[in-house]
From TrEMBL:
Statement: the UniProt record of this protein carries the keyword Methyltransferase: no
GO CC entries: plasma membrane
Keywords: Ion transport, NAD, Potassium, Potassium transport, Transport
Record-given protein name: Trk system potassium uptake protein TrkA
Lineage: Bacteria, Bacillati, Bacillota, Erysipelotrichia, Erysipelotrichales
Annotated RCK C-terminal domain residues: 135-215
Species this protein is from: Thomasclavelia ramosa DSM 1402
InterPro entries (UniProt xref): K_uptake_TrkA, NAD(P)-bd_dom_sf, RCK_C, RCK_C_sf, RCK_N, Trk_Ktr_HKT_K-transport
Domain RCK N-terminal positions: 1-118
Source domain of life: Bacteria
Length: 215
């Protein structure tokens, strides 16, 4: 994935190195040139000097072809502006804003922007979120596609949970699991395992809620 990170502080540095080591195409933006020194000699991505909310800076970083943008500066206000630009002007598919004020999270989710707090578990959770966004619709049911059958690989947030824990009756439910080349209809207490492929039936109107459960 082509990923832009705004903010080369402690979290941004750790995130950039982690994603770089996972072979993603990483570009990190900061307005302090000395901040890039923290990346170390093994970082093979790009650095762009400037303000993350400057469109020229974002375009220099490749936002027009980016798969994801993560704004993790020390300012909620800057993260909000950058994420809004990425989502609404450049239509980046995956946008994440780091928020110190958790009360703002619901507002941003309603705008299609995911948020993480300073107490979240770490950079692995961001990759987990990207995984949950890779939804493959394999069948649509109804004249207006009211119900979708969605196929997804088990992510870190799902492994170990039961089918009942990741279903919401009347909105989305697990209908099948592929495991070791065998397809089965699971029971409510069936636990999700690593490398499982899970099939959900999901109401169109519940897609956003479904994504939140996956994360």
């Amino acid at each position: 994935m082509k990923i832009i990170i705004v903010g080369c502080g402690k979290f941004g540095t750790r995130l950039a190195n982690y994603l770089n080591n996972q072979n993603h195409d990483v570009t990190i933006i900061d307005n302090r040139e000395e901040a890039f020194n923290n990346l170390g000699g093994n970082f093979t991505g790009r650095t762009v000097l400037g303000m993350g909310y400057d469109k020229d800076v974002l375009e220099s970083a490749g936002i027009k072809v980016a798969d994801a943008l993560i704004s993790c500066s020390s300012s909620d206000a800057i993260n909000a502006v950058v994420s809004n630009i990425a989502h609404n002007i450049y239509h980046v598919n995956n946008v994440i804003a780091r928020m110190y004020d958790k009360s703002k999270a619901r507002i941003f989710r309603s705008m299609g922007i995911h948020t993480i707090s300073i107490t979240d578990l770490g950079v692995e959770r961001i990759l987990d979120y990207f995984d949950s966004n890779r939804l493959q619709v394999v069948k649509k049911i109804g004249e207006d596609s009211e119900i979708k059958i969605i196929k997804i690989k088990a992510s870190l947030s799902l492994i170990g949970k039961t089918v009942d824990e990741i279903s919401l009756h009347g909105e989305f439910e697990v209908v099948a699991i592929e495991r070791h080349d065998i397809t089965m209809m699971p029971l409510k207490d069936t636990k999700i395992k690593d490398n499982d492929t899970i099939y959900f039936s999901v109401l169109e109107e519940s897609l956003l809620k479904f994504k939140e459960i996956l994360y």
